[in-house]
Predict the structure of ATP-binding protein.
Amino acid sequence: MNPSVIIGSDPSGAPVRIDIEELLATRLLVQGNSGSGKSHLLRRLLEESAGLVQQVVIDPEGDFVTLAEPFGHVVIDAAAYAGDEIVRLAARIRRHRASVVLALDGLEVDAQMRCAAAFLNTLFDAPREEWYPALVVVDEAQLFAPAAAGDVAEDARRVSLSAMTNLMCRGRKRGLAGIIATQRLAKLAKNVAAEASNFLMGRTFLDIDMARAADLLGMERRQAEQIRDLARGHFLGLGPAISRRPVAVRIGEVRTRAKTSISGLMPLPTASSEDMATLLHDQPVVAPPPPLPIVAEAPPVASDELLGQIEAQVPTAEQVEPEPQGALFAAEETAAKLATILADMAAEPDCTFQGAPALFQDFTLRCRMARIAGHGMDLAQFRRRFALAVAGCVPEEPGWAQIVAIAGDVADDLLAPFLVIARAAQLGEPCPEDAELARIYGTSSAGRVRRLLEHYEKAALIVVRTDYGGRRSIGIPALGVSTAPLEQA
């Protein structure tokens, strides 16, 4: 499956898409002067992909908090929380796959950099079982990854730049796809910008920025002039998730707006110049001020309450509209469809070499495409069901039921190879080859397979025997059976 979203249209009116799965692997850089439409582009991308993937927005101006109501993003007002609370919130966000907007507009620049760094580092340092795919959008990225020291404290600049470098350079393996937007490429640290493989370049006027944009787009310097002529909301796109050749994109409409947006001109006052001079120069008439209505300002949400909101949030990709006339399929049909989806995934080449969070995301999308109203599994349940599918297990069959029963205490990541070995022993087939066990285990290392068999043997799950001819057989004590001997290569 290659889910993609439409971000706009080319000059001929044909839709221009971004492949979200490819974007997760290759990252995105957006550049354009103030007023070129960068925030509009990011908003379009966030709105269109909200139902496909977790989203984390680092928002220095508070522009994206309006995503909360229509799309369910949790808004974190960074000014209301201490540093340790921000770290706790980030850890909970990673665990529960909540889409959030970290609003930094209430902080000074130094504090913004420190807060964003602590937040990003916590996402980056999450344990391996929580490496779920997520888009991490950083607006005004030159603030957090400056190319040179500025007016901010050196320690704040250093920690922020380190966090941004981790996001763009090493975040992919942890499921974090950086999407960074900047007004000027020359102000953005080169080692951060260089890690993006997808580019959307908007209007810019300075020669140094046009030259860098042209280099990234693979254009000749004399062609860089067209970047200066781009209209607001128009970009040049290139990259594996967008197009293999530079393509002109007019960004589509959005459903939300920033609270601080100014839509146009306002009429001037109608007073004459004499009246205006009088208003400006005359002494004001001091009058007792009218009583002001007392409006209680809503206190910031306590961190514990916000943690509860994050835990209670259902990932957008798993939200299913309730069917007005009951479930689409009967329980038996749903179970059969789930089994088919798992079997199809298990049959794909190299599926066992992918991380469990990425597989779980793919499984959820396949269920939605099959119109299954909720698969009812968490990550741990999915890992076990997927291991059964990789082994070709059919738990309803008597033979398989006996094997599954003795494998109840086997860890999920070690389950599939044991099931394959036990099934071969039950049927009296030759012992599985090391290469086959390595594929099922998701490794290319023969040493890991040997250590896996040693672990099984220490746990009294198997007994390995090699005869004088060098042929290996594996017995399953709990079943009282053994595989046929296999000639070792």
In short: The chain is about 40% helix and 15% strand. Residues 320-329 have pLDDT under 50 and may be disordered. Residues 154-170 form the longest helix (17 residues). Residues 395 and 404 are 7 Å apart (CA to CA).
